Amino acid sequence: MKDLPSIPRYEVLRNRRTILKNPLPFHHHYFQKYGDTFRINLGRRNDWVFTRNAESIRHILQKNHKSYGKSSFQTKELAKYIGHGLLTSNGEFWRVHRRMIQPAFHRKKLEGLLGTMYNAITTELNRVQVNSEQDIFPLMGDLAFQVVAKSLFSADNIRDRMQRLKEITITNQKMLIKEMRMPYLNWWFHLNGDIRRHLRLSAEARHLINGIVQERLDSNEKKNDLLDMLLDARYEDGTHMPRQQLIDEVMVLFTAGHETTANALSFTSMLLARHPKIQQRLYREVKDIDFEKGNNIHALAQLPYTQQCIEESMRLYPPVYFMDRVSLAEDTLEGHVFKKGTVWLMSIYELHRHVDFWENPDQFVPERFAPDDKKDFSGHYFPFGAGPRMCVGNNFAMYEMLMTIAFLVKKYRLSTTKKIKVHPLISLKPKEADIKFIVRT
């Protein structure tokens, strides 16, 4: 591994302000300079390795996944704010809870939630400000949050609590980003009370969720929503999930479920606004689609080009733009031996724009995801991850995005004068995503 090109610690410190603001140019510069894999010398006991090598990423996520676990960034740093759910756990604990939760997101189970999802989508999109530019990201953030909230809780009296939960999620994420990109200041974050204050916010969020769960239990009602599915889940010995674990899983669903979808919807909308010919082709597909009739699965099946646009958007701007793993044992990749404890940072953003795999990689070309060609990308396209830890809610997210984009383009013509800008935090967010909505006649 020592033969790998290495970025010295002083180079990281010298670029610390740039990295804090947006690390993607820093990553790209060194991928161009050193190739698909390099390491960073931070002067710690463990080595940090960056890669956009497709074979290495498949090896880590799929072929030899048992030899890799989530890093302490997720299992400790992120977990202290959102708990130990699927996103932040490892090993047997993760496997047990994955088996419990997976059935709730089966396609057949989700069919019963499509009406709830569609109602939440239309309620939010009817708030669009027409004939003037509007930043679409807050709109899509509200939409995705309400879809998760309604699908989880099926309640109309929790909007204020959900808004507070959203505020806490955003605030804690900003703190976590500072901890992640400036680890040399963690001593100061503890000393000045920043971490303590954000942990109190996390406790407030858990209290809000616990109150909603208790209201459901007290009501003795069955709503066949995601909360009911989680409450009905059983361990192999027949026991229920403990309350604190249930809250952890709900926290993860809110954090991961709404934010990544909001990002993908915002980027897709911006790309359509910047490509009127593609938008017009999509409009021809959706103009006669009617989700009001109730046969939503049939309607979704009529949207292949809409799905291609979403998939191409997630190639260019993957919400999960990097993934991390830590080696649990010594392993050999790319002809190099990597020791136990090596921290891997896999750049999905760079992989999705790699010239070895994508023709015109920086261009928005939904046609590349036509059904006959999609199989060609399976080894280097990971918008929802890969292997056993692939996103459990990928079908949920795709249904939500298909309905949202179909409704949006059917009702409005989208245009923009802005270039697409990114704001990488825990996930890849858009910045200054202003779109003008014109009602179609």
How would the blueprint of this fold be written?
Blueprint: E1 6-7, H1 9-14, H2 16-21, H3 24-34, E2 37-40, E3 48-51, H4 54-63, E4 68-69, H5 72-82, H6 91-101, H7 107-111, H8 114-125, E5 133-135, H9 136-153, H10 159-181, H11 186-191, H12 194-219, H13 226-232, H14 243-274, H15 276-286, H16 296-300, H17 304-316, E6 322-327, E7 331-333, E8 336-338, E9 343-347, H18 348-351, H19 394-411, E10 412-415, E11 421-424, E12 428-431, E13 434-439
Parallel strand pairs: 1-2, 3-9
Antiparallel strand pairs: 2-3, 4-6, 5-13, 6-9, 7-8, 10-13, 11-12
Helix pairs in contact: 5-10, 8-9, 8-19, 9-14, 10-12, 12-14, 14-17, 14-19, 15-19
Describe the structure.
With 441 residues, this protein is an alpha+beta fold. It has helices spanning 9-14, 16-21, 24-34, 54-63, 72-82, 91-101, 107-111, 114-125, 136-153, 159-181, 186-191, 194-219, 226-232, 243-274, 276-286, 296-300, 304-316, 348-351, 394-411; strands spanning 6-7, 37-40, 48-51, 68-69, 133-135, 322-327, 331-333, 336-338, 343-347, 412-415, 421-424, 428-431, 434-439. β2 (37-40) and β3 form a beta hairpin. α12 (194-219) packs across α14 (243-274).
